[in-house]
Predict the 3D structure of the following.
Amino acid sequence: MKTNQTNTARSRSLWTVSLGLLASLVACEVGIRDLDFESKQFTATFNVDSTLGIDSTSLTSLTGSKAIYSFSKDGKGTNHIQMGMLSKDIPFTWKLEGDSLRIDGEPYAVRKQDEGYMLKSDSVKIMLSQQP
């Protein structure tokens, strides 16, 4: 009788430990983290809603450009933009807040994609593809 009680107690103990491990694994899978961006570079592809006040010249320049976002650990970064033979590095600040990424204070909803992240605001979608 005592052996059955000992085996039952062990089974309950193992079950409790298993549930605890499962709960901790689920907790680790929450949202986007700073580590997902820190010290990484992403090529940006833009999809802009042209009905929201962006003139056609700016829209054409944007679609013909190449942009690379580099995120540093200190909440700062650099956006390297190349249009034809011209290029420019523009510094920016960034911060994750829940499921939003703020770039220079502008909030973007962030969603993980197969090859990177989709950033979305009211007027633009930015696909960030991580560079190797």
Remarks:
- The chain has two domains: 1-30, 34-130.
- Confidence is low (pLDDT under 50) at residues 9-29.
- Residues 118 and 127 are 5 Å apart (CA to CA).
